[in-house]
TrEMBL record:
Transmembrane segments: none annotated. Belongs to the antibiotic N-acetyltransferase family. InterPro entries: Amioglycoside_AcTrfase, Antibiotic_NAT-like. GO terms for biological process: response to antibiotic. Its EC number is 2.3.1.-. One of its GO terms (molecular function) is aminoglycoside 3-N-acetyltransferase activity. This is Aminoglycoside N(3)-acetyltransferase. It comes from the Bacteria. It catalyses: a 2-deoxystreptamine antibiotic + acetyl-CoA = an N(3)-acetyl-2-deoxystreptamine antibiotic + CoA + H(+).
Length: 271
């Protein structure tokens, strides 16, 4: 057992079970048949019996067969090594990394740096994944095809993205143990407020016409610093439901409310 897990047990009054989590999320307002995009920091919820699996099962049990669960499935390690900063790699390595990294595959490419819950969900039975090498989404449920059907290589969070589909159907944003600084849906608000954002060169290994090739493209620059204040704006406007989740906190809001509020707030406060 790791020191991190030992400390987590010491901070927990009791094991957090699927039943505890289901009760807490129902008290939060999550309902059967909804479409939800989930962000989760597992360690913030206490010591969860069953770990990531219990989180996913609790949400899916509430949503039922008519509900659809969505999560980010980013794989940033398939980006161009020239842009890597945490950590950077020597410039002399770049050509070999571009030549040798396995190409993006929705089933085989793991998520990177976004936690155990989305990585397990990517592998969940009947889960589908959008086709973007670095900024994909996973979804399970009757609306998965509609949500994931399109995601442009050079505009993965814009008006033809899974985020725009979530906005159209007014999905809900569920935050478990994490604040709105991690809310991926806010990238769509970014695109609406700053459509001419500076673009950054990138590239990824992909399969094109049956062959592995290095594909170069560009992406709009993103900036998550403005994300966190949106949480307080939503709270002040009474557009945010809050409740405990295990030993942590949970928040639930309409996807349209989140994005529209951010767009209004950013437009009114930009120079």
């Amino acid at each position: 057992m790791s020191a991190k897990e030992t400390a987590l047990i010491a901070r927990s009054a009791h094991p957090i079970t699927t039943e505890h989590l289901r009760h807490d999320m129902q008290a939060l307002g999550l309902r059967n048949g909804e479409t939800v995009i989930l962000h989760c920091a597992l360690s913030k919820l206490g010591w969860v019996s069953g770990g990531a699996r219990s989180i996913i099962e609790a949400v899916l049990q509430i949503l039922g067969p008519d509900g659809t669960l969505v999560m980010p499935a980013q794989s940033g390690d398939l980006s161009d090594p020239a842009s890597w900063q945490n950590p950077p790699v020597p410039r002399a390595w770049w050509p070999q990394i571009r030549q040798s990294t396995p190409p993006f595959d929705p089933r085989l490419t793991p998520t990177y740096g976004i936690g155990r819950v989305p990585e397990l969900f990517r592998l969940w039975p009947e889960t589908q994944r959008s086709f973007h090498p670095t900024c994909s989404f996973s979804a399970c449920g009757p609306l998965a095809d509609i949500i994931l059907k399109e995601q442009p290589l050079d505009d993965p969070f814009g008006e033809s993205s899974p985020l725009a589909r979530l906005y159209e159907i007014d999905a809900r944003v569920l935050m478990l143990g994490v604040g709105f600084q991690s809310c991926t849906a806010l990238h769509l608000a970014e695109r609406r407020v700053w459509p001419q954002a500076r673009r950054l060169a990138d590239g990824s290994p992909m399969i094109v016409n049956g062959e592995r090739v290095w594909v170069e493209y560009s992406l709009p620059e993103t900036e998550i610093a403005p994300f966190a204040p949106i949480e307080e704006v939503l709270r002040n406007e009474r557009k945010l439901s809050e409740h405990k989740a295990g030993s942590g906190n949970a928040m639930l809001a309409s996807c349209r409310d989140v994005i529209d509020t951010a767009v209004t707030h950013w437009r009114s406060n930009r120079a």
